[in-house]
Design a protein that fits this description.
210 residues, alpha/beta, Rossmann fold, five-stranded parallel β-sheet, binds cytidine-5'-monophosphate
Length: 210
């Protein structure tokens, strides 16, 4: 079973994807980390985020350390959001993601274009979203817990800018697949959001076997 989980930044899609992977004993890929690894590599090697060619060269990474905390930084996230608009970068990362999705037994992938581009045939598709103010509040609190001194208004501006870049780009924009289930987590805590996601997966499974 392939489960595709898409949605904007801080919508809760990563938490939900991890919970589903644990529940169904499936491998999980946070595809945002691939774009972040490219962004980080670009920064480390002095590349130019404004150049598609430079960004493509930064895709040449032998081994990605998914646990590197640097990948989670706001600076790397911002570069990742820019370079992910380049078609050449998306093409370079496509096969890796499709290979992961094609693992025997299935997989859970989360990102922006899993249900639309990477795994359009996924058995279950979720589009997880929440109001921008709610997502900004979550990100603000998360950064506060990490000891980072940021202003809520700046976080909200960043979330809105990222939403605009992700949904307005020509290459694989953030979009709900027509057959994806919408899960709005604005008024939900983690447990309730996860329970609803599980209910969607269960309904899709029983529908598939009926
Ligand atoms: O999900 P996360 O915030 O870690 O992703 C970082 C950036 O990578 C996003 O802002 C988005 O622009 C890009 N991305 C993408 N397609 C994906 C996953 C992430 O364009 N499947």
């Amino acid at each position: 079973m392939i489960i595709a989980v898409d949605g904007p930044a801080a919508s809760g899609k990563g938490t939900i994807a991890r919970a589903l992977a644990a529940r169904y004993a499936l491998p999980h890929l946070d595809t945002g980390l691939l774009y972040r690894a490219v962004g980080y590599n670009l920064l480390q090697t002095g590349g130019d985020p404004e150049s598609e060619f430079s960004a493509l060269r930064a895709c040449d990474i032998a081994q990605i350390d998914f646990a590197d905390p640097e990948l989670k930084s706001e600076a790397v996230g911002s570069v990742a959001s820019r370079i992910s608009a380049y078609p050449a970068v998306r093409r370079a990362l496509l096969e890796r993601q499709q290979r992961f999705a094609a693992m025997p037994g299935g997989a859970v992938l989360d990102g922006r274009d899993i249900g639309t581009v990477i795994a359009p045939g996924a058995e279950v598709k979720l589009f997880v979203t929440a109001a921008p103010e709610v997502r900004a509040r979550r990100r603000f609190e998360e950064l506060g817990r990490l000891g980072l001194n940021v202003h809520y208004d700046d976080v909200l501006l960043d979330i809105r800018a990222r939403d605009a870049r992700d949904s307005e780009r020509a290459a694989a924009p953030l979009r709900q697949a027509p057959d994806a289930h919408l899960l709005d987590t604005s008024a939900l805590g983690i447990e309730e959001a996860t329970a609803r996601a599980v209910a969607i997966v269960e309904a899709a499974r029983s529908g598939a076997s009926a």
